[in-house]
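Re: that backbone. Tokens:
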């Protein structure tokens, strides 16, 4: 015990919600505070003497070792960084570390703050911002970003890709006749069928309403886009069944090929939209 009735340092560390770890030059634990077990599931007796890298998530080994090297041999004095660890129960936790190297004692002192819950919330928010809530497909915002990336890549590599603009014929009549619940279920089923056809060729997303946009960026030849279009039409030949309701639905599909049908995202979408509209007029 310290003088003046102050409790000792180890007792103070054990009261902390964050885990305090001391690691030697070889990376072996020589001390962990009580919170270590709460965060990682291992007791001090189980990890002291073991190398810390053994508990780091495999994909984060390289990043973690780079930080350690920077701390020991570089200019990093008190770095903060994030990585993932595998708990004793097999679950993965996200950790924010604050680390300092003690030259006098030849040890690393690190404080581990569990940010797993924050990461889960961030992931949910990212998904909500980029994916359609009804179909779970990429939304308009995400699609435009994907399309721009695809366009830039195609320009740089001198390659081709295609857009399919899909509109569901007489979808409003489905909503008016059977209600929006059936209409929503139909859109969800359509999204599943489109994703099934497109999975090896590109990405399908929902622009909004009953409109879908498909980016075919894995084409070897432009003619393959026509094959995909035919497969989609074949999928719609199968009735959509909802309890006692059978719906026979047809799509109108416009096709645009880069670079022949447009040089920008706007031009390509406009071309595919017009092609779709011409087909719809003839149905």
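Recovered sequence:
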């Amino acid at each position: 015990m310290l003088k003046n009735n102050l409790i000792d340092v180890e007792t103070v560390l054990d009261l902390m919600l964050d885990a305090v770890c001391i690691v030697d030059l070889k990376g072996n634990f020589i001390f962990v505070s009580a919170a270590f077990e709460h965060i990682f599931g291992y007791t001090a007796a189980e990890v002291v003497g073991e190398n810390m890298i053994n508990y780091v998530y495999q994909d984060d080994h390289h990043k973690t070792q780079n930080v350690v090297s920077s701390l020991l041999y570089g200019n990093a004095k008190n770095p903060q960084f994030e990585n993932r660890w595998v708990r004793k129960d097999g679950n993965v936790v996200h950790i924010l570390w604050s680390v300092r190297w003690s030259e006098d004692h030849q040890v690393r002192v690190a404080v581990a703050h569990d940010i797993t819950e924050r990461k889960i919330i961030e992931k949910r928010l990212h998904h909500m911002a980029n994916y359609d809530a009804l179909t779970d497909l990429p939304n308009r915002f995400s699609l435009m970003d994907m399309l721009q990336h695809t366009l830039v890549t195609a320009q740089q590599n001198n390659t081709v890709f295609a857009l399919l603009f899909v509109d569901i014929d007489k979808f409003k009549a489905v909503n008016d006749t059977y209600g929006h619940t059936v209409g929503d279920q139909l859109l969800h089923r359509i999204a599943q069928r489109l994703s099934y056809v497109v999975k090896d060729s590109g990405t399908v997303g929902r622009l909004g309403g009953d409109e879908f946009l498909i980016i075919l960026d894995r084409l070897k030849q432009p003619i393959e886009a026509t094959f995909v279009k035919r497969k989609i039409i074949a999928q719609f030949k199968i009735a959509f069944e909802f309890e006692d309701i059978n719906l026979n639905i047809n799509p109108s599909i416009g096709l645009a090929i880069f670079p022949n049908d447009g040089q920008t995202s706007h031009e390509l979408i406009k071309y595919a939209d017009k092609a779709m509209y011409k087909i719809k007029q003839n149905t």
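The radius of gyration is 28 Å. The chain has a mean pLDDT of 92.
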